Amino acid sequence: MDSPSHFDHTLVRGFRTLKDLYENTDELLLVEDEPQNYKEASSDQKWIEAMEVELDSINRNNTWELTTLPKGHKAIGLKWVFKTKKDANGNIIKHKARLVAKGYIQQHGIDFEEVFAPVARMETIRLLLAIAANNKWEVHHLDVKSAFLHGDLKEEVYVTQPEGFIKRQDNGKVYRLIKALYGLRQAPRAWNIKLDNTLKSLDFKKCALEQAIYTKKSKDSILLIGVYVDDLIITGTPKKEIDKFKAQMEEKFEMSDLGLLAYYLGIEVTQTNGDISIKQSAYASKILKEAGMIDCNETLIPMDPGTRLTKITEGTMVNSTEYRSLIGCLRYLLHTRPDLSYSVGLLSRFMQEPREQHMKAIRQVLRYVKGTKDHGITYKHNGGNKIHGYSDSSYGVNTQEGKGTTGIIFYYGESPISWSTQKQATVALSSCESEFIAATAAATQALWLKRLLSKLTHTQEEKITIQVDNKSAIALMKNPVFHGRSKHIDTKYHFIRECVEREDIQVEFVSGEYQKADILTKALPKIKFLTMRQLIGLKDLSHSAYD
Prior knowledge:
Layout: H1 18-23, H2 25-29, H3 38-41, H4 45-60, E1 64-67, E2 75-76, E3 78-86, E4 92-101, H5 122-135, E5 139-144, E6 158-159, E7 174-177, H6 187-201, E8 205-206, E9 213-218, E10 221-228, E11 231-237, H7 239-252, E12 255-260, E13 263-264, E14 267-272, E15 275-279, H8 281-290, H9 320-333, H10 341-347, H11 356-371, E16 375-379, E17 387-394, E18 405-412, E19 415-423, H12 431-457, E20 464-468, H13 471-478, H14 495-501, E21 505-509, H15 526-535, E22 538-540, H16 543-546
Parallel strand pairs: 2-6, 17-20, 20-21
Antiparallel strand pairs: 1-7, 3-4, 5-11, 5-12, 6-7, 8-9, 9-10, 10-11, 13-14, 14-15, 15-16, 16-22, 17-18, 18-19
């Protein structure tokens, strides 16, 4: 639960994709004149035109055919959904009408089978950006218009005629869907299969370790593509190969070429002179606005070192829906903010019955966010192409059960690409044991990253160095003999010994003051926190920082 890569997608089940949630957060916060139904929209010319554009797109794609409803079949209702699309600064780009099927009445096994569609993990996207920056490649962004309308349907699905556009001469008839519609449970899966087949037909290979990454390599070119539903991130060299790929995709689908990647799932991306920076300033402002803390006082650290949070039964209960909503928003902010990993991870443990003390701690995190909205990560040109990591643990800090906290952070060159804070699953009897458990968790992540990097760059796998600040734990990893002090440690944690023996991983000692994972395992005092924040690679990316 405590790792940002395990962001709970169920929190946003009502949206088509996470992308919609982070593009449309404005609608949650600002009162917009968006129609709630067809009746309200039919009195405004701009929305009528938006509906006509949507129907035109559906008809051009040969999505359906008019027919009589066969016996024993039910027609699924359709609903108009209206959205005002905005850019990162909140300016209106366009008015969009979407025809959505009421897929919630579909029954599994009758109307649909498979629904899962893979999306790229955020740490993979960060690695992709780091590789691009290191090689001075441009990163481009493509969006498929009405993507779900391209997916071919295997099942027999019928829908009613859309409100306001019922053909008088065909009243009582229904549409049989040939391709998917938004709202159908199987729509994401159908689109993903279509895209997968298209990319394979263009000689791309799917990455076995990350299902939403595709690569294409020839002797003088390399292309990498990351897929998140209908958003495609393209990088590689030479530039003419990227342009050729865009042209090939435009032949097959209606595409929006968004040029150089600048805004992706609520993350602002800046590409300058080969360096690539990521931050979430606009999203941080939206969280503060939603929490009613846009004018709050700033604080220098997200959590005071002496903070003791427990699952107590006394104290005033707070609104758990509001608490969970704030936690969900802050967890998404972790994608560019490792400095918040510990405090947000700790507060995530109290979502069941949050009390006033927990809400007070969240408010301090938000006050810290207010003062550091423009902080983010920069991936540098020529920053190095080796992956190395740090693993640390805090022994028995801030847990009632006496379980330690694992902190892991991995770097590509000088910049962080993957980090997590997790409560350890078992109670450790010493700090050495706690560090050993943390290093094992780091080893599993290191193996995955090492293989992923090898697949993306088509190079040999190289062993990864993990830096640990406990000499006893390192001795335990390198010493194959089980002695009295370690025989009780769960067998699975001895996995790291095997990795060290096989030379997949190298473990080195690092002194505590240079232990970058320290900030992920406990609340640090002010000066130490600010020093560590700078050390892990987090910078103020506001415009003044570039001048």
